[in-house]
Amino acid sequence: MIDRRAISLAIVLVLAGCSRNPELVLPEAPIPKAWPGGEAVTDAKARVQPLPWRQFCTDPMLREVVEAALENNRDLRIAVARMEKAAGELGVAAANRLPLVQAGISHQVTRTPADLSTSGKSALARREEMGFALPSFELDFWGRLARLEEGARSAWLASAETALAVRIVLIAQVMESFVVWREMAARADLAEATLDIRQEARNFAEQRLGAGVVAAQTELRAALALEEVRAELAEWRRQESLAYNALRLLTGKDWDARREWPPLEGLDLTLQLALALPAQVLEARPDVRAAEHRLRAAHANVGAARAAFWPRIFLTTALGTASQALSGLFANGSAAWTFVPRLDVPIFELAGRKSHLASMEAEQRALLAEYEKVVQQAFREVADGLTSREALWNRLQALLVTREVQRRRLALIKERYQAGLEGREAFLNARQELYASQQLVYGAQRQLLVNQIALFKALGGGVE
């Protein structure tokens, strides 16, 4: 004869298996298989771990600025607080799967009026109770609570990855603001030094105009050139102040502008690249991992919504002693217990639960598209950095050569001028041309450094 309890248990296990949410399978990354540049850049055997920022940033003063930002920045504090909030919500979801055991002692006195008493006299009834209770514990046969805990865990992991991404973005922003600050300071110092050259050229033109050697138009050109440099100086100083203010905001700290900060040309932020396959590299980015965890949380929420269609089984249990007097709580025969199983079956809530399931499935599809978009954007950031890297390097080298040629030309013209073989105007013009060449070098150096910082961030950075 077949045991009915065995049949019932088999049915429950089968139903529980049918209601289990299938594992999430991530789609293949919608990106090319290799980086721009071919085998010279892509190396399947290369390390995937992002480069720590302290290895990327070798200047001690810049490190000091970045460390101050990591300690004081408010955006980072917000991200950390949200991660701690998600951790608390995970703890709540995990606690819901555990039985809640309560211990209590109660004293109850009830007076029954005479007209309601069967004896026709008022009566006092006393009841003393002490024991343990298991109030409304849900048996998670269908995995609803497990899916909710899984979703909370994925949400917490996503918030942790988001906090990590904020740290990396902050590090990159501080480095870039520092580079711009040093560029503007260098440009302003160069313009200030050139202002004296233009003033000297203006005075020389006025002298020649007074002697009738040159026309008034030549003196006006010298005056215009002087005012142009004066306007550039004002703009570079303004930009320097703005960059300094941005750095103060990011770091939450005032910095002494008169300190011996490293010059722009002294900064070295060079990445030695040998990249693994795109899909492997992008997995190391915290924003990609955060998008994946959000997708997994949505998948778990879909599973919980599906499990909500099945009956919910609750157990309420109490075990202890009861007596009319406190002294009788431990007497023989005072044991008391209750056992109340309850089965809740959704009937009129089916329409609402169907709508909730449809909403969760739509959210999962949206987060899947968001995950793919994050992966594509991450690939583009790396690809743009790689594409610009070589071109910016070649441009800087050409401008450095041009500046060196201008310096040699100025030295030659200076020798000829001192020997009386070259006019003073040619000497002043050569100095002005060197100034223009130096300004172009500063701009190219800043572009290359910013490109390296952007590439460092695009590759996932490293916060160790």
Keywords:
single chain; 464 residues; alpha+beta; Outer membrane efflux proteins (OEP); elongated
Largest sheet: 4 strands, antiparallel
Shape: elongated
Number of domains in the coordinates? 2
Poorly predicted parts:
9-19
Note down, in words, how this protein is organized:
- The chain has 464 residues and is α+β, with helices and mostly antiparallel strands.
- The chain folds into two domains: 18-97 and 141-310 and 352-458, Outer membrane efflux proteins (OEP), CATH 1.20.1600.10; 99-139 and 312-345, Outer membrane efflux proteins (OEP), CATH 2.20.200.10.
- 62% of the residues lie in helices and 11% in strands.
- The protein has ten helices and four strands; from the N terminus they run H-H-H-H-E-E-H-H-H-H-E-E-H-H.
- The chain has helices spanning 4-19, 53-56, 60-72, 74-95, 144-210, 216-251, 278-282, 286-307, 350-418, 424-458; strands at 102-112, 123-139, 312-323, 335-344.
- The chain has a four-stranded antiparallel beta sheet with strand order 1-2-3-4, with no helix packed on it.
- Helix 4 (74-95) packs antiparallel against helix 5 (144-210) and helix 5 runs antiparallel to helix 8 (286-307).
- The longest helix has 69 residues, at 350-418.
- The radius of gyration is 38 Å and the shape is elongated.
- It starts with a helix and ends in a 6-residue tail after the last helix.
- The model is unreliable at 9-19 (pLDDT under 50).
